[in-house]
Specification:
Layout (H helix, E strand, L loop, with lengths): L11 H6 L17 H12 L1 H12 L2 H5 L3 H4 L3 H26 L7 H17 L1 H12 L24 H9 L8 H12 L6 H6 L1 H7 L5 H5 L3 H4 L5 H5 L2 H21 L2 H6 L7 E2 L13 H12 L7 H10 L3 E2 L6 H48 L1
Parallel strand pairs: 1-2
Helix pairs in contact: 2-3, 3-6, 10-19, 18-19
Length: 381
């Protein structure tokens, strides 16, 4: 049998070089020689908590260290070491919590550091989300322009991506009652062009239409050379097909006949609605029809008179644009404006007729006076 193990006298220097013994005594040599124990010691030495552990070891009295000798107290070694380990672990946890509360930039254990980083990253992700709409407003993306045009609610078919020329056409012309013969003829031609082109394209080429068709004077259009107008390579041929160009010239001839019969094309076309526009009061785009019975009646009468390319769909588009029917949606800001414009023109028409009657009465009185004067002068002679 081997004798009792040889025990060195331990002092403060040995306690700094050698770690605390395990519960099994010193049979396996020092803990620093074992690989599993050396790894956590290196991690502890890297952290400031390890410094406190070393300092606590220095602070232990030599009598306590000497009492760890297996020669005198071999039975009480495990219990004493467990107490010291508990004290050291409590100091470690206390120092770690103090260091984490004192500064977020200090070194932490891996578990606490991971939790802090996750919480900070989540906070940094959540903070920008509520601030995004505010930044858009502050950058001017949602600020109202000087004219406040985006505040105006338009018909649903006018979207933010709609061509600006069509938006202006909707805001200024579409649905406003038209009484001028030249303007009526122009809009009849443009409505007929919808079978080949769209409103944005037509409006972008509107100046070309006016140039080709002499500002839509019906009498001048009837005098145009039809062969030159429809010749390949001409400006008119780049706008519409030959069929449409021939129809425009023929419609100008028929409008001239209507003017001779009714006094104006305005009196003829507005006579179908008793000189008052039809107010549809549609709320949704799906309610707006492509044609109506009234459009069928007007179309048949125009065809009977010799007009071309004036089907019910073309006629209804013409009725919409010249204000014979007010098809602005009730939520559109132009709905009430077009009603007001129609009422104002109706009042102006009444005033004009009253003035015409007054002038007629004055002319009658003047003629009667002149006749009476002539009779007096003849009797005096």
């Amino acid at each position: 049998m081997s004798g009792a193990p040889r025990v060195r006298s331990m002092n403060v220097a040995d306690s700094e070089a050698r770690p605390v013994l395990g519960p099994a005594g010193n049979k396996g040599g020092s803990l620093s020689a074992k690989k599993p124990a050396s790894k956590p010691l290196r991690k502890v030495e890297k952290s400031p908590v390890g410094v406190t552990v070393a300092e606590s070891k220095k602070a232990l009295p030599s009598s306590t260290i000497n009492s760890l000798s297996p020669k005198t107290h071999s039975a009480s070694v495990p219990s004493v070491l467990r107490r010291h380990e508990q004290l050291l672990h409590s100091n470690l946890s206390l120092n770690a919590s103090c260091s984490s509360d004192a500064s977020t930039d200090s070194f932490h254990s891996r578990a606490s550091t991971a939790r802090l980083i996750r919480s900070n990253s989540v906070g940094s992700r959540r903070k920008p989300y509520p601030s995004k709409p505010r930044s858009v407003v502050s950058d001017g993306g949602l600020d109202s322009p000087p004219d406040g045009s985006h505040l105006k609610k338009r018909c649903a078919w006018v979207t933010p991506n709609t061509d600006p020329c069509y938006v202006a056409f909707h805001d200024e012309e579409w649905g406003v009652p038209v009484r001028d013969d030249k303007k009526l003829f122009e809009l009849l031609v443009l409505s007929g062009a919808l079978s080949e082109l769209t409103w944005p394209v037509i409006l972008s080429k509107r100046h070309l239409f006016r140039e080709v068709f002499a500002d839509f004077d019906p009498i001048t259009v009837t005098k145009l050379n039809e062969k030159k107008l429809i010749a390949p390579g001409s400006m008119a041929s780049s706008l519409l097909s030959e069929l449409k160009l021939r129809a425009i010239i023929e419609n100008a001839r028929q409008i001239s006949k209507v003017i001779d019969e009714f006094g104006s094309f305005n009196e003829y076309i507005w006579g179908f609605v008793n000189q008052k526009p039809i107010v549809s009061r549609f709320r949704f785009p799906r309610q707006v029809p492509v044609k109506t019975p009234k459009a069928d009646v007007i179309s048949k009468d125009l065809v009977r008179r010799g007009f071309r390319s004036v089907g019910p769909t073309v006629v209804y588009s013409f009725m919409q644009v010249v204000g014979i029917t007010n098809d602005h949606l009730t939520g559109c800001f132009r709905f009430q404006e077009c009603i007001a414009a129609a009422e104002a023109k109706e009042e102006n028409g009444i005033i004009d007729t009253a003035e015409e009657k007054k002038t007629d009465n004055v002319n009658v009185i003047e003629s009667e006076l002149s006749i009476a004067i002539d009779e007096l002068s003849f009797s005096s002679e």
